[in-house]
Amino acid sequence: MPWGTFLVRLPLAVSLLAASATVPGSAVDLDGRPADPLAASSGKAVVLVFLRRDCPVSSRYAPAIQKIAEQNAARAKFWLIFPDKSDAPDAVRDYLKDYAYRLPALRDPEHVLVKLGRVQITPEVAVFDRDQHLVYDGRVDNWYVDLSRSRHAATTHELQDAIDAAATGKPLAQKEVRGVGCYISDLD
Amino acid sequence: MVVAAIVSVAALGLTARPVGPTDSSRPPTFNHDIAPIMFRSCAACHRPGEAAPFSLLTYSDAKKHARQVAEVVRARSMPPWLPEPQPLKFADEMRLTDAEIDLIQRWVEQGAVEGNAADLPPQPKFVEGWRLGEPDLVLKAEKPFILPPEGTDTYWNFIFRIPIQQTRWVKAVEIRPGDKRFVHHANILVDRTGSLRQREAEPGAGFGGMEIRIESQVFDPDSHLLFWKPGTVPYVEPDGMALRLDKGTDLVLNTHLQPSGKPEVIQPSIGLYFTSHAATKLPMLLQLENDAKLDIPPGRSDFAVSDDFTLPVDVDLLAIYPHAHYLGNDIQALATLPDGKKETLIHIPHWNLNWQAVYRYAEPVRLPKGTTVSLRYVYDNSENNPLNPNHPPVRVVGGNKSTDEMCHLWLQVLPVNFDPRTDPRMILQQALARHNIEKNPGDFEAHYNLASMLQANDKLEDAVKEYEEAVRLRPDDAAANNALGAALVADGQPRPATALFRIALENRPDYFDAHYNFAIALTQMGEMDQAVAEFEAALKLQPDDAGAEANLGATLADMGKFEQAKAHLERALKIDPSQSLAQENLDAVEKAINSR
């Protein structure tokens, strides 16, 4: 029986280990250089926003994400993460321009950050506190009910709550709320 | 599993297609099992240039969205098809069978495998460009609408002014709504009086608004449902069912747009296909509604509204178009035939405004005289309705704004077996107006419409009574005051009519009809100077109106001003040479001038 317990714990142990690692590996910036968004965030909370260019739900969120990033600029550093390995850097640059993003972007073809942030869907976010502990992963808010229905406006704001929690150290009621959108695993 | 699913499909009365490997030990593959479903049921929209956000034409396309596809087909939110299966079939039903849905689930669960290349069926062929070939007339919206990057659903109307000089018959309209990815649906409304042009800030600019109302002056009921939604193939009307377009008719495209995250340029086009065959069958759009009953308390999840209308003539039901806003939940229409048999006309258990559609029946549905058509809508104004525009919920009443609610059902019916000396549409419309008055005595439009039909049937006294009721309900309404005035003039009572025209013109100074009718009343009273002034005011608004020119000429002739009369009569004949009365008057005026 101890073997069984060990086997069950193994993935958890890996993910805890990864969450506290300082060099996440092979996420790359748009010039192809390795990038570590957690290390580069100097004392602020870090928000990784996972997007697929071919996911209309991801795209519709652009103005909201840009706004939340600006409102929280003093306490959280935002990164846009593109996990589709077939994304060319120039296509990502065009996308950022089209959607008026003014946030740094990284490509994550190996899904290193996907695993680190435990995200499954675009758009989802992973929020790390300044000690690089994962505080929250999941949806931005509850705007979308499912893929064919969206609310007039969101009534819960998980990303904002998570940034607040990362700043104050107050625990979150829900550390994980799955989003509505496009599966990242479909890209494997 | 597959066998059980096929049995349940057969029980639903759908055509069971041969699907999937009967040997469930072999994992389903894209090439063998999934591609045929996607080519048939998804690719019309899920291909480059079409409405869907991504393509599903190839394995790599499908693989990148495999779990998403499995999820939406399982929830039956894709393909988008809201009605429940029912005995009365619709044309072009977009519904996957249970077996197909099951197969897609298993394909994804078992690794979304590509399979043997030899199994892949040929890609479906789609017509590029205009689906029905090059249209006879293509019109592009004069100015694009820039859809803002964020915000909630947006409704924009584009007015297409049709550059035709004589009446044409339209057998098909293809709507190209602009960038299809952001247009949820679009409806064309026929504006025969240019009444919506005044809503534009400048000509061609278009205007906002979800629900629009069109004014018409004569009995000329709407007859066609001209609708676009993603995947729509333009509908060609059967011979004899063409839509009439006259000179001066506007087609107004009402579009429902959804912001995408970046600004989008929306500039629709429409293509018209003409036929030389004039309409010989005259369908009509019957509207059941009960907006007056919509007063939905906050928190209420089962607010029921109904309307029941008994048909005064035999009809064939061709198409149905239910309409509610965000609180609409269970939407149903049924017919109770004279023998008591009930037929479900449509049942949408989970209404979604975003996927509203016109549903055309596979075969016309005969509804004999005495059939009661019923609307049964249930609204959910609770917190549990995620589409509720208000958080927390508030009281919601009927209205035109998207945050108001609506309870409408349009039926396209073609009267059959009628006495050719009667106009069955007039009988239907009158019965409907009386039904609406009974349902809601304060229904201004019902009184107004009933009056105009009574007037068209030479029942002037009854018409005057109904117009009076309309004016009583809306004392400042320009159209009602003008119509009552016109009916009184027709009844030989010009004097009381003048006060009504004055009210109409106070409320709408640029109202051509009121100036014109006022002028006619004044001529009957012998107030010629003032009549001339009113005709001139009318002509200032519509300089090319042959009738106003002809009547101004006649009035001037009556005053002995023959030279001036001659000029106006000649102008009337230049605009419309068929004005025989103007010709007679012109001959008389010329004789008078020559005999001086």
Overview of the molecule:
The complex is a heterodimer of chains A (188) and B (596). Helix content of chain A is 32%, strand content 21%. Chain A is of the alpha/beta class and 188 residues long. In chain A, the strands form 3 sheets. In chain A, strands 1-4-3-2-6-7-10 form a 7-stranded mixed β-sheet. Chain A starts with a helix and ends in a 5-residue tail after the last strand. Mean pLDDT of chain A is 86; it is low at 1-24. With 596 residues, chain B is of the alpha+beta class. Chain B has 15 helices and 21 strands. A 5-stranded antiparallel β-sheet of chain B has the order 6-3-9-5-7, with no helix packed on it. Chain B has a 4-stranded antiparallel β-sheet with strand order 1-11-4-8, with no helix packed on it. In chain B, strands 12-21-15-18 form a 4-stranded antiparallel β-sheet, with helices on one face. In chain B, 32% of the residues lie in helices and 21% in strands. Chain B has helices at residues 2-12, 30-41, 59-63, 66-74, 98-109, 424-439, 444-456, 460-473, 478-490, 494-507, 512-524, 528-541, 546-558, 562-575, 580-594, and strands at residues 137-140, 145-147, 154-161, 168-176, 183-191, 207-208, 226-228, 243-245, 250-257, 264-266, 269-275, 284-289, 295-296, 303-310, 315-323, 328-336, 342-348, 359-367, 372-379, 396-397, 408-415. In chain B, helix 6 (424-439) packs antiparallel against helix 7 (444-456), helix 8 (460-473) packs antiparallel against helix 9 and helix 9 (478-490) packs parallel to helix 11 (512-524). Chain B folds into 4 domains: 2-119, no CATH class; 137-275, Sandwich (Jelly Rolls); 284-439, Jelly Rolls (Sandwich), CATH 2.60.120; 458-594, Serine Threonine Protein Phosphatase 5, Tetratricopeptide repeat, CATH 1.25.40. Classes of the chains: A alpha/beta (188), B alpha+beta (596). Chain A binds chain B through residues 54-56, 59-64, 84, 98-100, 145-149, 151-153, 155, 182-183, 185-187, and chain B through 53-54, 63-68, 71-72, 75, 77-78, 80, 112, 149-150, 152, 181, 259-262, 326, 352, 354-355, 386-389, 391.
